[in-house]
């Protein structure tokens, strides 16, 4: 039984939302199956589902669920939890998943900055390519500094709007 049946929601309406939002995520660069799994988890009241529940709702194989969850866990968009007394895992999306995903990009930005610095040195800062790399590096350095302040403002806004986060 799907969650929407237990909440009185029309499963077709839920499915249309999941597919529509997933399509938006795909358009933004996420691969299709992780986008569908993420949208399904995000739209479920519990915020968590098992592999079987995801497979049933999305009509996908356990292997497809596993691959999607692996990607989403690596990008900090979902977490895995063991059901007490069971070997089954539940996959959970948290209220702060966007915050976590974005702040975990900090390590990626730092690696890109390092690679760009090397590129500027290798190609020469006075060449057209070196200038483009320098400008890209400056953008990422700027973004890195602004991101910290932005995330702090978000925490304050979130607490004011939704109340303090409960662990």
Gyration radius from CA atoms, angstroms: 20 Å
Order of helices and strands: HHHEHHEEHHH
| Shape descriptor | elongated
Fraction in beta strands: 5-15%
Helix content: 55-70%
**Number of helical runs?**
8
Search tags:
elongated, single chain, 68% helix
How would you portray this structure in words?
68% of the residues lie in helices and 7% in strands. The chain is elongated and about 65 Å long. The two termini are 29 Å apart. The protein contains eight helices and three strands, in the order αααβααββααα. The chain is mainly α and 167 residues long. Strands 1-3-2 form a three-stranded antiparallel beta sheet. The chain has helices at 3-7, 11-27, 32-42, 51-58, 62-74, 97-103, 106-123, 128-162, and strands spanning 48-50, 79-82, 89-92.
List the helices and strands and how they pair.
Blueprint: H1 3-7, H2 11-27, H3 32-42, E1 48-50, H4 51-58, H5 62-74, E2 79-82, E3 89-92, H6 97-103, H7 106-123, H8 128-162
Antiparallel strand pairs: 1-3, 2-3
